[in-house]
Amino acid sequence: MGTKLQERLSKIKLVIFDVDGVLTDGKIYCGVNGECMKVFNTKDNLGITRLRSTGMEFGIITGRESTFVKDYAATRDIQYVYQKTCDKLPIFEDLRKKLGLSNEEVAYMGDDLIDVPVMEHVGFAGCPADAMPCVKKIAHFISQYNGGCGAAREFCDLIFEAQHSCDI
């Protein structure tokens, strides 16, 4: 890890994720009775749990609304959850100010056009391997994994490693 990246990651105090395409593979499974389901990856869960154990704050800002997201956030102890939000930048700014953080102290992982405004403002922006080209263009970090398949884990591990100087 380069010195410049180490410095950038050492400042992070809040990690925010998009959901569809980042914490999930972006697919929404619908049953014959209209019920919908999303699938979260246990590897990503462990990355969040591990980094959360260090006192890191977490948030979710997502364009869709789902009880699955609310339940997922509760099981991961993610306190800041904003759903049905197409304009994510004002939510990001409000949360950042509420927590008394600078832009440089926030990391964000997104995968699509809706995430770009926030990614342009944070100290560390990441995306999954299968993110849209416009997102990859501005990301500081592109995971080797697709959304819902370990990208969030790799993102968390990178921050953990920079802040705790240990092998993963």
Helix/strand layout:
Layout: H1 3-10, E1 14-17, E2 29-30, E3 36-37, H2 42-52, E4 57-61, H3 67-75, E5 80-82, H4 88-98, E6 106-109, H5 116-119, E7 124-127, H6 133-136, E8 141-142, H7 151-164
Parallel strand pairs: 1-4, 1-6, 4-5, 6-7, 7-8
Antiparallel strand pairs: 2-3
Helix pairs in contact: 1-7, 2-7
Second rung of CATH, namely the architecture: 3-Layer(aba) Sandwich
Sheet with most strands: strand arrangement: 5-4-1-6-7-8
The tally of helices reads 7
Q: If you consult CATH, what is the topology?
A: Rossmann fold
Number of extended strands:
8
Number of folding domains? Answer: 1
Note the gap between the termini. Answer: 13 Å
| Strand residues, percent | 15-25%
Radius of gyration: 15 Å
Word description of this protein:
By secondary structure, this protein is of the alpha/beta class. It has a single domain (3-164), classed as 3-Layer(aba) Sandwich (Rossmann fold). 36% of the residues lie in helices and 15% in strands. The protein is built from seven helices and eight strands; from the N terminus they run αβββαβαβαβαβαβα. It has helices at 3-10, 42-52, 67-75, 88-98, 116-119, 133-136, 151-164, and strands at 14-17, 29-30, 36-37, 57-61, 80-82, 106-109, 124-127, 141-142. The strands form two sheets. Strands 5-4-1-6-7-8 form a six-stranded parallel sheet, sandwiched between helices. α1 packs across α7 (151-164) and α2 (42-52) runs parallel beside α7 (151-164). The longest helix is centred in the C-terminal third of the chain and has 14 residues, at 151-164. The protein is globular. The model has no long low-confidence stretch (mean pLDDT 93).
